[in-house]
Amino acid sequence: MAIDFKQDILAPVASDFAAMDTFINEGITSKVALVMAVSKHVVEAGGKRMRPIMCLLAAKACGSTDLEQHRKLAAIIEMLHTATLVHDDVVDESGLRRGRPTANATWNNQTAVLVGDFLISRAFDLLVDLNDMVLLKDFSTGTCEIAEGEVLQLQSQHDPETTEQTYLNIIHGKTSRLFELATEGAAILSGTPEYREPLRHFAGHFGNAFQIIDDILDYTSDAETLGKNIGDDLMEGKPTLPLISALQHTQGEEHDIVRRSIATGGIHQLEQVIQIVQQSGALDYCRKRAEEETQAALAALQHLPESEARQALFNLTQLALHRIQ
Amino acid sequence: MAIDFKQDILAPVASDFAAMDTFINEGITSKVALVMAVSKHVVEAGGKRMRPIMCLLAAKACGSTDLEQHRKLAAIIEMLHTATLVHDDVVDESGLRRGRPTANATWNNQTAVLVGDFLISRAFDLLVDLNDMVLLKDFSTGTCEIAEGEVLQLQSQHDPETTEQTYLNIIHGKTSRLFELATEGAAILSGTPEYREPLRHFAGHFGNAFQIIDDILDYTSDAETLGKNIGDDLMEGKPTLPLISALQHTQGEEHDIVRRSIATGGIHQLEQVIQIVQQSGALDYCRKRAEEETQAALAALQHLPESEARQALFNLTQLALHRIQ
């Protein structure tokens, strides 16, 4: 049975989700016209807003009925996510994101760096208003780890010695940590600390699965379906799981080609590397790992009481996996 | 009588200042080697650490005797300052700061953007540990305003219509606001809220004077004394007070040359513009404004009880002004 996003995932929090936009718009309000214009541009370029939806669903799954505070938290999560995207686009020198021109392309790197800084600061400012020291500590530590994950990714670029463990550390920081904050934060605000750990485990494994799937798609998808080109990561010499796994599944010349392509990046031998990744069994291993992470995420959810919202989190996890099935 | 930095300014807080470095080094500790290497590089490239010194002096001027918490706050201030410098150097494409290669030049823009993000997040993380909601709100709002000031500066680049008021808004955000946080934060942590306002006024005017003086030096100094070249701001089309004032002090062809040089930037007619700025009376006006801001800063200090630390803040303010005397 196909999962329908609106009906099977969004439904339990549809009105809260709609109301969240008000908080995002308030959040990006500024006396400085350029700040607002850029913030508006990047916030509107957002995707399905998976992180805030997950935050709202987690709140309901914790038994919260009034989500007023959680709506603010969801808006904060989306602003933090947007800030990291804006800086990522500067870092990756990207011109397009989801088919729209990026902030650095529409304005320039300077503007993108500084508006990203504004969004981080404003997110913290709104977080302080929620007046919860435990929540603040969780987020201030979490955002450090997100930045560290991003730098670890840079540090590992062009390094064929990168291990699967280092890869997991990278994706935990750059992807899973914010999912964790979204759901663990919901438990904190709901006054149900007993659900913090199961929700963190759920979100951490969900994030890992989500990123592994993204990295698989970099070797299998086409530009039209994903808005990114096949081999983008390879071009940048990013040792993602498909390449790490390809190194483990090959020997001799093929092994050397993959190693060299991580070390040098670029389009040199691009097609050959993609073929090796696709035919060596590397992608099968990646799919297996994505499924394991998905199963671990679903298992963690079982520690929450049964509810419509928990089912929706279940459905969202399966929908994410379906992208490679 | 010449003011001696160590004896007349640093002395009352010398041991606290030395101890602060421990907190900075703890603050930049990270599991990710590249994060630590870059953080260490940029923190060590720091100047006289005027902001943390001002924080510590303000704490003593408020009557605090045990500065354990203030040392942490001073370290946080310096980390925030360092983070803005790292991002500024990316924004300005600077290769050198105080004669040392910048982070973006030593590594690359990507690394500089992400390590700057780390330093902002870590500063907030340490701030949360100080466990004071009033302090947190002051800082979270303040860092938004700092980012807004920086974007306003970008927005005003190449705009010859920029008014003195807009200039003041820019320098309040990009420079004075952090001085305000340093001293107002000290009053909050000292449990002397009655000194928040006088210290904020002091620091705000001090920061304005400091930045106006910096902007004057861009038209009068040479590279050897300041580590920056004459005309740097002009090259970038930044409408600082010397240019805004030059527009008000000139007519006809000279006026048009200054207008055009703001609009286009670059070295076109560089020498001519510098000559107009120097001979039109613009710099006299700027010096007058710097002195007014200095006097306002000193007047605000009078609202604090007399002490060795207050005298040191007094001396620091006069030392800053001496740069153009």
Short description:
The structure is a homodimer of 325-residue chains. Chain A has 17 helices and 2 strands.
> Quick one: CATH class of chain A?
Mainly Alpha
The share of residues in extended strands of chain A comes to: under 5%
Total beta strands of chain A: 2
**Overall 3D form of chain A:** globular
What is the makeup of the main sheet of chain A? 2 strands, antiparallel
Helix and strand composition category of chain A: mainly alpha
What value does the average pLDDT of chain A take? 92
The succession of helices and strands of chain A, N to C, reads HHHHHEEHHHHHHHHHHHH
Q: Largest inter-chain interface?
A: A-B, 44 and 44 residues
CATH architecture annotation of chain A: Orthogonal Bundle
Model regions low in confidence, pLDDT < 50 over at least 5 residues of chain A: none
Q: Which percent bin holds the helix content of chain A?
A: over 70%
**C-alpha end-to-end distance of chain A:** 13 Å
Integer count of domains of chain A: 1
From the 3D structure, determine the CATH topology of chain A.
Answer: Farnesyl Diphosphate Synthase
> Count of DSSP helices of chain A?
17
Cα Rg of chain A: 20 Å
Q: Which assembly state applies to the chains in this document?
A: homodimer
